[in-house]
Structure prediction request, 570 residues.
Amino acid sequence: MAQVKAAPKTYDVVIVGSGAGGGVAAQVLAEAGAKICMLEAGDWYDCRKDSMMFGWPYNAPHRAAGSKQKPFGYFDATTLGGWQVPGEPYINAKGTTWRWWRARMLGGRTNHYGRISLRMGPYDFKPYSRDGKGFDWPITYEDLAPYYDKAEELIGVFGSQEGLENTPDGKFLPPPAPRCYERLIKLTCDKLKIPCIPSRMAMLTKPLHGRPACHYCGQCGRSCGVNANFNSPGVHIFPAQKTGNLEVRTSAMVREVLVGGDGMATGVSYVDKKTRRDVDVRARIVVLAASCCETARIMLNSKSSQFPNGVANSSGLVGRYIMDTVGSAVTGHVPWLEDLPPRNEDGIGGMHLYMPWWLYKEQKENKLPFARGYHIEIGGGREQPGAGVLAGAPRLMGGGYGVELKRNLRKMYGAEIDFAGRGEMIPNEDSYCEIDPHTVDQWGIPVLRFHFKWSDDEINQARHMQETFQEIIKNAGGVVTRSYDKEEDWGIAPGGEIIHEVGATKMGDDPKTSVLNQYCQAWDCKNLFITDAAPFVSNADKNPTLTITALGWRTSEYIVDQVKKLNVKV
Prediction:
C-alpha cells in the first residue's frame, strides 16, 4: 500500500522578524492561543548566555575598539549579528546618502539599542492639522495610550511625572539620580528656561516580572546578561515560547509573501541561509515585522498576477515616505569639572537626564524657521576621553608629551560634555526605497535602492540644535571643542545614520492614499498585518521603539478580535 504524503503544516500566524514589533506580536498572539512560526534572518541570541557584558578590553583585539566589521566596538551585542551585513548590499541612487543599518540576530536591534522610551504626544499624531505639513495619523494619542500603558508595565520604563504638554507621562519606575555633570547641565538649563528632566528608558530600577533590577555596570550596548533592560527575546519571545504556541526558526532570509488566487496571503517563502534551500511556510495570517525598510523590500519583491507591483501595493505607496531622525551634535569642555576628586558616577548605560522639546509657543507663532521640534540627549562624565576631548586637547592643554601629556589628560578626565539632538523629519516625496533592477544579494533576492533628501525644515532644525548646544556649553562656563557650521549643513547626520527609519507602508483612512488601515492591516490583503515602524505616518522627535511596541500590541489584539468575529479566518 502506497504511503500518503502528509500535507505541509499550516500555522495560524507566521511572523517575519523578532525585534520589538515581532516580539510583542508573538507574545500577544501566543497567549491568545495562536500557533505561530517566527522567522529570523540572523542567528539565535540569548543575552543571558551570549552577552559579553563583563568582558575586559584588554582581553579583546585592539582593546575592543570599533572596526569596520564591528563599528560599535568589539563587545557590542551585534558581535554575533553584525551591522550592515556583508552579502546583503543595498544601492544609493545618485545624489543620495542613506545608511541602512541592520542587525541579524534574534531580537534584532532590541539587544543593543539605547532603550530611550518616549511616548508620542497628542500633537505628534496630528501634525498636519497643526502646521499643514506631512500627514495626520488615522489614530489619536488617546487610541494608543492604553497600549503605551501595557508596554511600559511589561518592559519596565523609568521616568518621572512632569505634566508636559506633548511629552506624556507614563507608568514609570523610579529614575536613577543624576550624575555630577548632569546636575551642572540641569542648573544651566534652568537658567536658560530649557526643561531638563529625568530620562525615560527601558531599564529596570526595580525588579519586575521576575527580572532583576539593573546593577549599573553601564554596559547596556553589549546586551544585559541578567535581562534587566528591555530586549525582545528576554521580555517577549522566551515567555511566548513557554506557552507551547511559538516555534522560532533562525537563519531564515524571507524572500516574499505568498498569495493565493483570491489575493489573500497564504504564507511566506524564505531561503535557509545554512542550506541555501528555498522553504515555504504556510499560514492563515502573515505579520511582517522585519524592520521598516526590510518589510518594504519583502512586499515589493512579492509580485504576482494579483499584485504586479508588490503585495498590497495598489496605492503605489509601499516604500514611499521613508523618514529618519534629524541628528546633530556638539561637544564641549567645562573647566569647572577638571581636577575633581573621583566620585561615584554609577548608573545605566546612557543619560539620566534629557531635555524634551520646549518651544511650542514660538513655533505656533512662526518665530522659528522650521516646523516640528527635537529633544536633547546628553553625555559626558568620567568615561574614557572621547573624540571631542582628544580633538581639543592640544589647544586646551597647551601641548605636552609623555608625563606632562598624561597629567594633562588626567586633569581633563571627566570634564567633557556632549549634546545630541534628535528631531522630527517631515515626510517628503523625494525620500523612498524601491527594488534595484540590477542587483541581488547572495541569496538571489533583489535589493533596495534608496532615494533620500532632507528638507529646509530639517536643515534649519539642525542649525537651531547647534546654536542651542553651544549656548548651553558657554553658559556652563565651558568651551566648544567640536561643532559644525553652515557649510557642513549644520552637522546633520546622513539619512539612516540615527537608525530610526520609519514609514514605507503608511497607515491611513483611505486605501488610495495609504497602504494600511488604522490597525496596520493591509487594505488589499486582509490577512496581512505589519507591526514594525513601517506603518508610521510621521517621525516625531521621540525614539520609535516604544511606539512600535504599543502599536504592535494594538494590532495584535485587533487580530485576535477579528479572528473571533471570523473577519479573518484561522
